[in-house]
Amino acid sequence: PDFxxxxxxxxPEFPEPAQVEVSEDGCSWTxxxxxxxxxxxxxxxxxxxxxxxxxxxxxxxxxxxxxxFDLAELGxxxxxxxxxxxxxxxxxxxxxxxxxxxxxxxxxxxDLDAVAVVHGG
Length: 121
Prior knowledge:
The chain has 1 helix and 6 strands. It has one helix at 88-93; strands at residues 3-6, 18-23, 30-31, 67-69, 81-86, 114-117.
């Protein structure tokens, strides 16, 4: 993977999916495939393991947790920009729930913790 997106969803029952898009020029964007109802391909799904005090390297995709993305999957060799688009409303709507309704356990949207660049400069 080239980078890892960290958004701690607190478990598989509480994902906060987002679509990751990349760009070389900041004008033309290429999205990674993301299916909000199933969370396949989305960021905001995997638990974060590289927490303070965990001694896990946030640049180690095998141990860091978070959601890793590889530019080769899009046919890209380099990018300068990463854009993250919240898709949580679509996830919760698929189960007939409103993600903003406090009466539904306060479900929320994607909140970025960090992006770690594994390969790049």
